[in-house]
Amino acid sequence: MVGCGGSVSGDGWWFSSGSTFLQANEPGVLFGMQKTPGGNRDFSYFVIFRHAVRSTAQHTKNEDLSFTGMVASMRDGVTIDGKSFELALELEANKDTGTIRSRTLTMNGKGVDPAKGALFLVDLTSDIVSYEQIIATLPNDLPDPTTDTATVTKLAREVTQKLKRENDSVREFLK
Hints:
- The protein has helices at residues 149-166, 168-173; strands at 2-3, 6-10, 13-21, 28-35, 41-50, 59-67, 71-80, 83-94, 99-107, 110-112, 119-123, 130-134.
- It is mainly beta.
- The strands form 2 sheets. Strands 1, 2, 3, 4, 5, 11 and 12 form a 7-stranded mixed sheet that branches. Strands 6-7-8-9-10 form a 5-stranded antiparallel sheet, with no helix packed on it.
């Protein structure tokens, strides 16, 4: 399964969620993006997840995205064979400065500190779903992934490989 996700925009702001890469024998990836007026398109979150997807696996994706002009709300998650994770992110826009004023982030319903990183490593192969939040340098000035599954596939694979080369935690997680 490769999905482009959705996007919303207004007044120069742009947000996306739900871009999904899920293939057998490769790490899964789920990501969302943001773009401020006059800024570059950046990742809001990037999730790499271990899974055991086979042709018989049951998998679903949950996604919800909205932008009121002041607050962007992104809800995203994956369930595979009854094991799931859910991420929720709210970004408050500062229209005066064209920046993000505040971020509120939860993972599986638990509040997490956005300052501790936008990269999550999630294990859906254990009896208990676990995750680790990582500070890592994610690429910016990204293409719009909401219209072409080839873009989602390329971003998922390239960013995962870059992180594997540059980050010890990612390298260990993907062994």
